[in-house]
Design a protein that fits this description.
single chain; 403 residues; mainly alpha; Growth Hormone, Chain: A; 2 domains; 15 helices; globular
Length: 403
């Protein structure tokens, strides 16, 4: 009788450790917390300008630091997770995110703000690379597309809820609570990951060596990179410039603009698991990637042709669906390239790097082009890029004979 309780607890821990669904819940929770904190800061950051005595344009630099750190550290963190395991990187990433969130509250100079944002970016590189690799380790390849789609849906949920939580905390709980309450929540998630036993598929017989470019993988990796950069580059153009266009074309209020972006996020939340499920069951990467990029270009054209805000929002919803279809299949394909080499960390470090390249390049390219042409031309040029990438993707994926 006295030993039954510990035996039951041990059995429960073993079931959790062996359950891919339990791992999925943990990874979704980790990604959600990262994106919620990212979004939570959006309505609060403008308060930093008068508080720290800096120009608001300088705050824009702080936004870029996150993407820069993700770009620099994703591959090293993925490789490190191949060597030391996924859980240590996820736990450290969560604790670093909690530290960064608290630092935002205590920042009194611009330097403090830069340090906090840098730590936040490094934490994201650790949690994303190790978390997605953990999913690939524990999920059967036949269901990986759907699992990755569900994990990416956490991005949309965090993107929607983060600014709402930040605005409410700032208004009703005060400045410090806006950061300290989320910091405690994030630290709690990190401790939860530490407490839950995890079993991952590690290679036997010595330390793991993660080849950055497996033999014969150059063209498949280049095709994945092109698809991921095309998708993230589109978000990099849409995020900063669509609000300006909506305000100029329809005199849209901030609340209306927020609703349009919520429509984009909801489209991704719904479409990503569906795209992953379709890929798992039927394959069709040629249609999902190539067709998704082509339809994304068409959706951008439709958005620019919309005569009302409602029609434009409908086109933006279609854009979110099409971008999701193009992005999700690349994730199990990356896993397949590195499977059997103990290198899933390298695979998803690459994914984060490719995504960061597009997300960083989009705003800079937009800034150059927006100074020369009206905003509708900028979006039509991006639509043209998507169309070209879609056609190339259609033929390249067919040549590679992916599912």
């Amino acid at each position: 009788m006295t030993t039954r309780g510990p035996h039951r607890l041990r059995a429960l821990r073993n079931r959790i450790a062996a359950s891919p669904d339990a791992i999925l819940v943990l990874v979704v929770l980790v990604i959600f917390m990262d994106m919620m904190i990212y979004g939570l800061l959006i309505p609060v950051f403008p308060q930093y300008a008068p508080r720290l005595g800096v120009d608001e344009q300088v705050i824009g630099v702080v936004f870029g630091i996150y993407a820069a750190m993700l770009l620099i550290f994703s591959i090293p963190m993925g490789l490190l997770s191949d060597r030391v395991g996924r859980r240590p990187l996820i736990v450290v990433g969560m604790l670093l995110l909690a530290l960064a969130t608290a630092l935002f509250g205590f920042s009194t100079t611009f330097t403090h703000l830069v340090v906090a944002r840098t730590v936040q970016g490094v934490s994201a590189a650790a949690t994303w690379s190790a978390g997605l690799a953990l999913l690939a380790d524990t999920c059967h390849p036949s269901r990986l597309g759907e699992k990755m789609g569900i994990a990416l849906s956490a991005v949309g949920v965090g993107t929607i809820l983060g600014p709402v939580a930040g605005g409410l905390l700032f208004e009703y709980a005060g400045y410090m609570a806006t950061f300290l309450v989320p910091a405690v929540l994030v630290a709690s998630v990190g401790l939860l990951v530490l407490a839950v036993p995890l079993r991952t598929c590690r290679q036997e017989g010595g330390p793991v060596r993660s080849p950055m470019l497996p033999r014969g993988a150059f063209l498949p990796l280049a095709a994945c990179a092109a698809a991921i950069v095309a998708v993230s580059g589109t978000y990099g153009v849409v995020d900063p410039y669509l609000p300006v266009y909506l305000h100029a074309a329809f005199s849209a209020s901030p609340a209306a603009i927020d609703l349009v972006f919520a429509v984009l996020a909801v489209a991704a939340i719904l479409a990503q698991p569906a795209a992953g499920r379709i890929y798992d069951r039927y394959g069709g990467s040629r249609y999902l990637i190539g067709g998704g990029l082509l339809l994304s270009g068409a959706a951008l054209v439709a958005a620019m042709q919309g005569e009302t805000l409602l029609l434009t929002a409908a086109a933006i919803f279609a854009l979110g669906v099409a971008l999701s279809c193009a992005l999700v299949p690349a994730m199990p394909i990356l896993a397949g390239i590195y499977r059997g080499r103990g290198s899933q960390g390298a695979a998803y470090g690459m994914y984060n790097t490719f995504f960061s390249v597009g997300l960083s390049a989009g705003p800079f390219a937009g800034a150059v082009l927006a100074g020369r042409w009206p905003l509708p031309v900028l979006f039509l040029l991006q639509a043209g890029v998507l169309a070209v990438m879609g056609v190339l993707g259609w033929f390249v994926v067919g040549r590679l004979r992916w599912r």
